[in-house]
Structure formats: structure tokens, C-alpha cells
Amino acid sequence: MTSPIARLAVLCHCLGCIAVADGPARTPAAILAEYDAVKVPTPDRSRAGDAAAINAYREEAARASARKAGLALELSRVAPDNPRVPDMLIERWVQTMMSPATAGATVAEIDGTLKHFKDPARRKVARQMKAIATVVSHPDDPKAALPEVDRFLSDYPKDPLGANLLNGFALSIKDPDLKRTLLKRLAAEFPDSPLAESAATALAALDLVGKPLDLDFVDAVGKKPVSLKSLKGRVVVLDFWATWCGPCVASMPALKALNEKYKDEGLSVLGVNMDEGDEGREKMAAFVARNGLPWPQHHDGKGWESPLVERLGVRAIPALVVIDRAGNVAELDAHDRLAEVLPRYLHAPSPAR
């Protein structure tokens, strides 16, 4: 599965459509009629491995969701006490809170409309969304979001939404020290949450950074043995993916381009496919052949229960783990900045053999 943040973020590239147009105010009935008429499409599961179809679906879904978001804001201005406003605004904020370009405005919007949230459960959800938007609005200084996160955790102690908030915060940041602090809080403050176990796994994975990783397997497609030890001296990228993962499929062309650009400079890509069972192996092999993926594929058929997935603390895909030329884990998840970090590792001197 993709992370909650990643799943929500795919809808945000069309946020320019969300603004409410100036003009005479419409009646609540007219706004609601249009809102109910806008249908967000559902993905076609039969085309899960088709990158073009996935991108087309995402664009159509983004347009429809953006229109509904604009209508929600329009209704909140025309009839703020309408009983449907809270649910419509929550659906709107699912989109706007996940984009750094709109997260700050979302915080202000939530502050300005919370007084209309009479139902405590919906008010709590809005408060959690405000905390998430605060995190997203500080991509370069995540510590600045801690006070708002702490306020939510203080006002709603032991609430499962607090565990989700800490988990999402930890997933979204790269600072290993802050990530470790958040994961420890998650495990300590929510010991009975299913997320506590995954936090412990992620903490163990953080300790792997800077240490060697042993990995030996037989390529599930080419049937040849693969060993990280034999690749020492090269920069290795482990691509955790699945054919059912839309963002994974959509990102493959970019990974292929990076592989082609840097393979002669010392880059090796290894796929770690997470489709389950023998049927999953067949789907993976067909996808690899259809899309011309030139690198070996690890496939044990165990999906999220794979020992390799658990050892490296992979909690959402796509995930890209970088192994440096010395054979040590360098990056636990570089999927959104691989093009940025690769040159640094490729230009590092090769270790003595």
C-alpha cells in the first residue's frame, strides 16, 4: 500500500481548480445539487499495470475532487451552518492539507470554520487535519509543527487518531533524529496500537543506516543469482514495488531513465516486488516483460510479510533504498529525491576491495 500521505497527495496537482469564482452568491440548494452531481471516478483494477491508464485516472479524479472541494468552500461561505458543511469541508481538506502550496491556507481555513463543527467527532477529525496541514506546511522545518501536533495529542490522549498523526509525521520526514523521536513516542504512548509494532520495526531499520546489508537471491525473471556483495563498488538502488501500486507503476519510466543515465557510472537497480504468491510472480514477470525493465527482481511472494521488507522497515511503496559503494545502507527511502541524491553517492570514491 502507499502511505496515507502519498495516497492523498496524488490528488493535489489540480489544486488551482479549487478556488471559488467571484460572482453572485448561489443558493445552498444549487451548490449541493452540483456537488452531488460531480462523480469522482474509481480506478479500473483490470488496468493496474498500465501507467498511461493510471495517469489518466489520476488526472480525472483530481479534476473531479478539485471541483467538489471548491463547491464545499462555496457552501461554507454561503451557508456556514448547513449540516453538510463539516463533512464537505473535511473532504476538501483531505486534498488541500497535503500540498505545501495550500497547507498553510488550510490551517487558517480550519481555524476559521471550527466553530461550525458542532459534532465532537467531526471537530476532532478537523483538529487532526489541522495538525497534518501544519506538518505539511513546514517541509524544511518539521520541528516547527511539533507544538500543533502536541496540542492534538494533549487534547485527545490515547486516541487512535493521535497514533495515526505520529505515524504520518514520522513517515513524511527525512531527519533521522526527529523520525526516531516520533517513532519512540508512537511506541510508548500507543503501545496497544497496531502502529506500535511497525514503529518498532522502523526504529530497527533506522539503525541499519551506515551498516552493510547482506542480500542474496535468485532473479525471479532471469533466474540468475544476485548478491549485494558482488555489487560492492557500485551504488545499488532497491526498488520496492508492486503491480497493483499505481504510484509505483507511474514512477517506473523515471527510474528506467535514471538507470540508463547512470548505469555506466556505477548504478545498479534491483527490484523488490511485493505481489503475493505464484499469481503475483506471474503478474510481476508479465509487467517486467511488457515494460522492458532491465534489472533483476527479488520476489518471495510474501508481500508485506517479506523478511526483507520488514528488515528495511518499508511501510509504504514505492520505496527506494540506496546502498552506497561500500555496501552500506545509505538511504532508507529516497523515492521522492533519488535524482537529487544519486550523484552524491555515484561520485564518492569506490572502496578498496
Provide key terms for this protein.
five-stranded mixed sheet, disordered N terminus, two-stranded antiparallel sheet, Thioredoxin-like_sf, 7 strands, Glutaredoxin, 2 domains, 8% strand, alpha/beta, globular, signal, 353 residues
Can you tell me about this structure?
The chain is an alpha/beta fold and 353 residues long. The protein folds into 2 domains: 4-206, no CATH class; 216-346, Glutaredoxin (3-Layer(aba) Sandwich), CATH 3.40.30. It has helices at residues 4-9, 28-37, 51-78, 85-96, 100-113, 120-136, 146-155, 160-172, 176-189, 194-206, 246-262, 277-291, 307-311, 338-346, and strands at 216-218, 225-227, 235-241, 267-273, 297-298, 319-323, 329-331. A 5-stranded mixed sheet has the order 5-4-3-6-7, covered by helices on one side. Strands 1-2 form a two-stranded antiparallel sheet. Residues 1-21 form the signal peptide. It comes from Aquisphaera giovannonii.
What's the topology here?
Layout: H1 4-9, H2 28-37, H3 51-78, H4 85-96, H5 100-113, H6 120-136, H7 146-155, H8 160-172, H9 176-189, H10 194-206, E1 216-218, E2 225-227, E3 235-241, H11 246-262, E4 267-273, H12 277-291, E5 297-298, H13 307-311, E6 319-323, E7 329-331, H14 338-346
Parallel strand pairs: 3-4, 4-5
Antiparallel strand pairs: 1-2, 3-6, 6-7
Helix pairs in contact: 2-3, 3-4, 3-11, 4-6, 5-6, 6-7, 6-8, 8-9, 9-10
